[in-house]
């Protein structure tokens, strides 16, 4: 992120000048002259940057190149024509074509005056004088405009919830061509992205990646944050020039530019949430044979058993009131609870050693309790006193927002051992 941070403080203007010597065919026809190709890349961090490329020569102008060895959208052909005039015995007829369609773009109208050479561009010269000795035309130039849009969705989020930071780079290329010079910007691409989420977190994406990105980010602290994105762009500019004797030269130069922008987003504090535990009690189903496999059975709070018989009991969760969620003081719905384990509390039963369930051990849901009573109910003040069997239930509750909590619920069930039902 160091590169992006430095870039955010500096507007970079990169000037690249390449010199091309256009040499005369013979020493007697003149000394070498210089054509300058300049490429200036201006970075910007308010959503806009541009690359400006220009070919210029203070002494001469050169015809647009022919052939397919460059990126100009146009090409030209120059033909020397006899004119049979004392003041202008020869002319250069310049024909300019659209490269994509091969259609001539400077054709004269049908009612043009004679002689009609099939072009609107005629340069007076003689067989020994090049048309580039005429006054130079305007410089050729090309400009690449880069615009970057940054957005955070949603614009207002909740702390801990995901957001998406997106950056989309658009471009517009203008390539101006006169009859003498040609300039093109080619082969440019985004080589890297730098993201600063505004909360102390950052991320770098190395490319080539493309002209748009979407990155997920979760803000963990409330407040207003400024998300920044910087695109690092590299490319090449190309100029095609002719010397005065028709020899084409291609000049290429690299450039790099950065464009950045930002977007504001707000992360709101998560509203307070209160999770109320469920209210539940234990229920059991006694049996003497194999354990029933029906999970839909409803347990009993009170059971009768045979005196002196080892009794198996399946454990069930009986919901009195489900767990509930309150968000910022408002009801947020009820949870769904399930039994995940249990533990027998209290004293051991009368079951023979090694056959009954011992207190203090946690068991998984689906395991049964094995208990035995060798004495009938006690009589207290003329009333039968049932046995109370204490258990601790392990209950898992899943709330509507996905939160999961585990609770320990202390409960018990009662057992009647009738004296008349004793065996043995």
How would you explain this protein's 3D organization?
With 424 residues, the chain is an all-beta fold. The chain has one helix at 2-9; strands spanning 13-22, 33-42, 48-56, 74-82, 90-98, 103-104, 121-125, 140-153, 156-158, 162-176, 182-196, 202-206, 212-218, 223-242, 248-268, 273-276, 279-287, 302-307, 311-321, 324-327, 330-334, 336-344, 362-364, 369-371, 378-380, 383-385, 387-398, 404-422. The strands form seven sheets. The protein has a six-stranded antiparallel beta sheet, with no helix packed on it. Strands 9-15-14-11-12 form a five-stranded mixed beta sheet, covered by helices on one side. It has two domains: 2-268, no CATH class; 273-422, no CATH class. The protein is rod-shaped and about 150 Å long. A hairpin with a 5-residue loop joins strand 14 (223-242) and strand 15 (248-268).
